[in-house]
Design brief:
The complex is a heterodimer. By secondary structure, chain A is of the alpha/beta class. Chain A contains 12 helices and 20 strands. In chain A, helix 3 packs across helix 4. Chain B is of the alpha/beta class. Chains A and B meet through helix 3, helix 5, helix 6 and helix 7 of A and helix 2 of B.
Chain lengths: ~400, ~475
C-alpha cells in the first residue's frame, strides 16, 4: 500500500511538473451521470473526470470555468477495460516451440499494431490488453502490454517487458523435446528455478536477466494451470521458491479456493461466455470469498470483443459482488500485469483511459458511447456523435 | 475359502487367547480432555500382529491406534462406532499401484507434433471438454468430477512417463499424480487406504514412485514424495516406443525409441550406472545413451543403497537378468509383477528378493498381451512364492473394483495361499516393504488408524467395505455396493 501511495504521489508530481512546463491549457473534463469508483462501486455524485495531458488530474468536484467539457448525459464513466489474456494483434504465432524454457522470448516482438481486430476491441471498451505467449512452453517469455489506441490515435505498446508467462498445460508437453510428461515438466521447472536462483547473471546474459529475478520472486509471472491439480503443483512452487505468481485457472475453484489466499497474486478466470457452466461462473465468487483477487479474461480475439464484459456480468450473476466484478475487468488484471499504478482505475495520476458507457458496464444492454486513451478520445459511437457531443 | 483357512489357525488361535488376553494393549494414556478418542466394535478384528479377536474392539486416540482387544475401557467422552456384524482389518495397501487415466492424455499423443493453433482456440476446446459441474457452494476439497486426466496416470495403452531419456530417475511420479482424481475414490471403495504409485515401464530406469493415502485432508495425503526407482526389464521399454512398432517408422520424436531389444535394455541399464560411477570419479561421459546430468546423483544413490530399487520382470529370463545385474552392481531390489517367478524360486530365495506379485490372471490382456511375455502365468504363483519362504505382497496394479486388491487376495487364497497369508500380503507385508511397518498395515498400537470394516470376512466373495477410516477419520461410511 505504501509503495502504491508513493508511486501515485510520484505520478501526481510528475503530472503537475508536466503542466507547469507547458503553460498552454491542455486540460479537459469528461462529465456524466455516474462513474465507477476505485472500489468498483458506482458513484452517482460528481461524475467529473478532469484530465491534464495524458493523465487524470482529478475525479469529482466542479468544472472550472473555461475548461472544455465532454458531457454525456445519463452515461457512466468507467476505467478503460483491461484484458490480461489475449492474442490480439499477434503477427504469426505465439508458440515458440524450440525449447521448453525460453524466458528471454518477448511477445512484444510479435505485436502488429495495425491489426484490424484492435478496433473491435476498442469499440467494446477494451483499452489495455496483454499479448500472452502461448501455453506451448513451460516458460513462454515476457508478456507484452499494449493499448488499443493512444494520444496519436494509433494502438501502442504500454510495456514491452511485462510479467513472465509460464504454463503447466498439457500443451507444454511435446514429443520432440523435453518434457514429454508432467513429471518431466515439474522436474525441469524446479531445476530451472534452482539454477536461476543460484546464479548471479552477467549483465550481458539477457536470458538470465529475465529469469533470475522471477526465480527469486522479484519479478511477477502468470502461469496457466488448467486443472486443480496444476494449481496445487503451482502452489508448491510458490511455497518452495517464494514466487510472485498469478494463475490462469477457470474450472477448479470449488476444489482449491480455500488454499489460495495470500499464496497467489490473483487468479485469472475465463473467458466466460454463455456456454460456461456453473463450475466456471461460480469460481470468481468462491475465490472472492477467500479474499483472492480475481481477474476475468475476455479471450480476444478468439471470442467476441464483448466477452470481457459478459464474463464479469456472468460472474456477478453467479454471486460475485458487482464492485469486484467491475474491478475484475479493470483494476485486478492491471495489477496482474504489473501496471496497476498506471491504468485500471479512475484515480488521479493514472493514465486517462476512460470508457463512457450508456449505463452500468455490468448491464449488458449498456453500449459504449466513447473511449478515451491517454486523455484523447479515440472512439466515438456514431449515434452519440449525432447528438452533438463536443467534436 | 477364508473359512477353510481360518479353521486351520483356530486351535492356535484359541491357545493364544487363553494365554495372552487382552491380545494387544498399550499402556493406558493419561486422561487428557484435549485428545479425541474413538472406539470401534466389530464381530472380528484382524490385527495382523497376532490372531484375530472375536467380538473385538479398537480404541483410537488422536488418529492413532491406542489399544486392540476384547473388553477395552471406553473413556468418558469417547465416540463409539458399533459395527457388531462387521469384520475389521487394517486398511489395505497396494505396493505397486498404477493410477488409471480418466481420459487419454491429450498432450502426449503418439503422433507427430500438432500444428500450432491459437491459444484461444485451445481454450475454447478446453471449455467445450468441460461441461458444467456440481452445484455445491462450499470450498472444501473434494474429488473433482471433471479434472482432465493429464495428471492422473496410466491406462494400459497410454504412456505418461517422461520420455526424453531412457534414464529418468530424477523425475518424480508424484508430479504426475492428481490427488483430486476420482480414481482414488475407486481405490477407497475397494478398502485400499495406502498406495505406492509406481512409474510405468516405459523407461529402462524410470521415475521414482510415491506413497499416498487414498483419502483425507490434502496436506496429509502424501506419505513419501520420492521413493523407489523403477527399472523395467524385458520387452516393455523397447516396445513401448510407438514408432518402433511401425515398420515405416515415423517422424523423429521421443517415441522412436532405443533400445529395441533385451540386449539394448540391459546395455542402457549398465551404461547408466557405469556412467554414474565414471562421473563421480571425475571422468567425462561419452557415447550414445548417456544419462541426463540430473540423473547421475540419483543413480549414485541407487548404487549406495540410499534409494530403493524395484525391478519389473515377468519372464524367468528377465528375472535372472535382474539377479545378474544386481550382483554386478551390488544392488538390493524388490521384484515387481514376477509372472514367472515360480520358475526362479531357488534363485530368488538365495538372493533374498522380496516379490510384489500381480495381478493374477489366466490370460494376459492389454499391454501385457502386446508385450508377449506374460503367456505363462500360474494362478498358484502366490502359494508357491509363500511356500518358498519369499516375502510376498500382492498388487492389483491398474485393476480396480471387482478385480481390485482385495480380489487379488481372494484369488490367491482360492489357489492355495492361506487366508492369513493372503490378508498379510495386502496389509502387513506391503507396509513392511514400503518401510511403513510402524505406521500402517497392522493394528499395532501406535500405527495410524487406517482401517476397514467389511460386511463379511474380507476375502469372502460378497464382502464389501462398509466403513473406512484413515488417520482415525471416517472417509467412507455405508455400503457402497450400489454407487
Amino acid at each position: 500500500m505504501k509503495r502504491s501511495a508513493l508511486l501515485a504521489l510520484g505520478f501526481v508530481l510528475a503530472a503537475s511538473l508536466h503542466t507547469a512546463a507547458q503553460p498552454a491549457p491542455t486540460g479537459k473534463v469528461i462529465k456524466a451521470a455516474a462513474y465507477v469508483g476505485p472500489d468498483g462501486k458506482l458513484v452517482s455524485e460528481g461524475a467529473v473526470v478532469a484530465i491534464e495531458g495524458e493523465r487524470i488530474a482529478r475525479v469529482g468536484g466542479d468544472v472550472p470555468a473555461g475548461t472544455p467539457v465532454d458531457e454525456y448525459a445519463g452515461a457512466v464513466l468507467s476505467p478503460g477495460l483491461v484484458d490480461c489474456l489475449t492474442t490480439l494483434g499477434v503477427l504469426g504465432d505465439l508458440a515458440e516451440r524450440q525449447t521448453a524454457l525460453q524466458p528471454d522470448v518477448r511477445a512484444a516482438d510479435a505485436f502488429n499494431r495495425f491489426a484490424r481486430e484492435l478496433r473491435a476491441a476498442l469499440a467494446a471498451g477494451v483499452t489495455t490488453f496483454a499479448l500472452v505467449p502461448s501455453d506451448d512452453a513451460l516458460v513462454g517469455g515476457s508478456i507484452a502490454i499494449c493499448q488499443t489506441g493512444g494520444p496519436e490515435g494509433k494502438p501502442r505498446m504500454l510495456e514491452r517487458n511485462g510479467p513472465l508467462k509460464l504454463s503447466l498445460s498439457q500443451d507444454a508437453f511435446k514429443t520432440d523435446r523435453e518434457p514429454t510428461s508432467r513429471s518431466g515438466a515439474l522436474g525441469l521447472l524446479r531445476e530451472a528455478l534452482q539454477a536461476g536462483r543460484s546464479v548471479n547473471p552477467p549483465a550481458s546474459d539477457a536470458g538470465a536477466a529475465s529469469w533470475t529475478p522471477f526465480a527469486r520472486g522479484q519479478r511477477p509471472g502468470v502461469m496457466t494451470a488448467p486443472s486443480a491439480a496444476d494449481v496445487l503443483a503451482a502452489l508448491d512452487l510458490v511455497d518452495e521458491f517464494k514466487l510472485r505468481l498469478a494463475l490462469i485457472h477457470t474450472e477448479g475453484a470449488l476444489d482449491i479456493a480455500g488454499r489460495l489466499r495470500e499464496r497467489v497474486a490473483a487468479i485469472v478466470v475465463g473467458p466466460l461466455d454463455m456456454t460456461s457452466g456453473l463450475r466456471a461462473t461460480r469460481g470468481p465468487r468462491l475465490l472472492a470469498q477467500q479474499q483472492v483477487p480475481v481477474a476475468i479474461a475476455g479471450g480476444l480475439p478468439g471470442y467476441p470483443a464483448d466477452t470481457l464484459r459478459i464474463g464479469a456480468a456472468l460472474a456477478a450473476r453467479a454471486g460475485l459482488d458487482p464492485g469486484l466484478a467491475r474491478q475484475a475487468i479493470a483494476a485486478v488484471p492491471a495489477d496482474v500485469l504489473g501496471v496497476g499504478e498506471r491504468v485500471g482505475a479512475l484515480a488521479p495520476g493514472r493514465q486517462a483511459d476512460v470508457v463512457v458507457f450508456s449505463g452500468d458496464p455490468l448491464d449488458l444492454r449498456s453500449r459504449v458511447l466513447a473511449v478515451y486513451i491517454g486523455g484523447q478520445r479515440v472512439y466515438l459511437d456514431g449515434a452519440t456523435a449525432a447528438t452533438g457531443v463536443r467534436p | 475359502m477364508i473359512r477353510r483357512g481360518a479353521r486351520g489357525v483356530l486351535p492356535a488361535c484359541a491357545c493364544a487367547f487363553l494365554i495372552a488376553q487382552p491380545a494387544v494393549s498399550a499402556p493406558a494414556a493419561p486422561p487428557d480432555d484435549q485428545s479425541e478418542v474413538l472406539v470401534i466394535r466389530a464381530a472380528r478384528v484382524y490385527t495382523m500382529t497376532g490372531d484375530p479377536i472375536d467380538q473385538g474392539m479398537v480404541r483410537i486416540r488422536d488418529g492413532k491406534i491406542e489399544a486392540v482387544g476384547k473388553d477395552l475401557a471406553v473413556p468418558a467422552g469417547a465416540k463409539v462406532i458399533e459395527r457388531r456384524t462387521g469384520i475389521l482389518t487394517p486398511g489395505l495397501i497396494d505396493a505397486c499401484c498404477v493410477l488409471n487415466a480418466e481420459i487419454p492424455q491429450m498432450g502426449v499423443q503418439p503422433t507427430y507434433p500438432r500444428p500450432p493453433r491459437s491459444l484461444w482456440l485451445k481454450l475454447g476446446e478446453y471449455a467445450a471438454r468441460h461441461p458444467s459441474g456440481e452445484e455445491e457452494d462450499d470450498c472444501d476439497v473434494k474429488a473433482s468430477e471433471l479434472d482432465p486426466a493429464f495428471a492422473s496416470g496410466l491406462s494400459p495403452f497410454v504412456i505418461w512417463s517422461e520420455e526424453s531419456s531412457e534414464v529418468t530417475p530424477h523425475r518424480l511420479v508424484i508430479d504426475s499424480v492428481n490427488l483430486l482424481s476420482n480414481d482414488f475414490a475407486r481405490l477407497l471403495r475397494g478398502g485400499v487406504t495406502t498406495v505406492y504409485l509406481s512409474a510405468d515401464s516405459a523407461n529402462v530406469i524410470g521415475a521414482r514412485g510415491t506413497i499416498v493415502k487414498t483419502a483425507g485432508a490434502l496436506d496429509q495425503r502424501v506419505v513419501r514424495r520420492a521413493d523407489a526407482v523403477k527399472v523395467a526389464l524385458g520387452a516393455d521399454p523397447g516396445r513401448r516406443g510407438h514408432a518402433n512398432m511401425l515398420p515405416s517408422g515415423g517422424a523423429p520424436t521421443f517415441y522412436n525409441r532405443r533400445p529395441t531389444t533385451r540386449m539394448g535394455v540391459e546395455w542402457v541399464f549398465r551404461k547408466a550406472l557405469y556412467d554414474a560411477r565414471r562421473s563421480a570419479a571425475g571422468g567425462a561421459l561419452h557415447g550414445a545413451d548417456r544419462p541426463p546430468e540430473a540423473a547421475l546423483p540419483v543413480l549414485l544413490q541407487m548404487l549406495a543403497g540410499e534409494v530403493p530399487v524395484r525391478v519389473q520382470a515377468r519372464m524367468q529370463h528377465d528375472i535372472f537378468t535382474a539377479l545378474r545385474l544386481a550382483r554386478e552392481f551390488g544392488l538390493k531390489f524388490t521384484l515387481e509383477e514376477a509372472t514367472e517367478a515360480y520358475r526362479a524360486l531357488p534363485q530368488l530365495k538365495a538372493a533374498g528378493v522380496p516379490v510384489i506379485f500381480g495381478p493374477l490372471y489366466m490370460d494376459p490382456a492389454g499391454w501385457r498381451q502386446i508385450a508377449g511375455e506374460a503367456d505363462r502365468p500360474r494362478l498358484n504363483s502366490p502359494r508357491q512364492l509363500a511356500e518358498a519362504g519369499l516375502e510376498l505382497a500382492l498388487t492389483a496394479q491398474e485393476l480396480r473394483d471387482e478385480e481390485g486388491l482385495v480380489r487379488q487376495g481372494m484369488l490367491a487364497a482360492r489357489y492355495g495361499l492361506s487366508a492369513d497369508a493372503a490378508l498379510r500380503a495386502i496389509t502387513a507385508t506391503p507396509a513392511k516393504l514400503l518401510g511403513l511397518a510402524d505406521q500402517a498395515g497392522t493394528l499395532k498400537p501406535g500405527t495410524a488408524a487406517d482401517l476397514v470394516v467389511w460386511s463379511d470376512e474380507p476375502l469372502a466373495a460378497t464382502s464389501r467395505p462398509i466403513l473406512v477410516l484413515i488417520g482415525g477419520r471416517t472417509v467412507l461410511d455405508g455400503d457402497q455396493a450400489n454407487r
